[in-house]
Amino acid sequence: MNKTFRALALSACLSAVAATAQAATATAVFAGGCFWCIEADFEKLAGVTEVESGYTAGKTANPTYKEVSNGHTGHTEAVRVIYDPAKVSYAELVEYFWRHIDPTVKDRQFCDIGSQYRSGIYWGSPAERQVVEASRDALLKSGRFKAIHTELAPASTFYLAEDYHQDYYKKNSVRYNYYRYSCGRDARVKSLWQ
Question: Which of 53, 87, 141, 179 has the smallest C-beta neighbourhood within 10 Å, fewest atoms?
Answer without folding.
Answer: 141
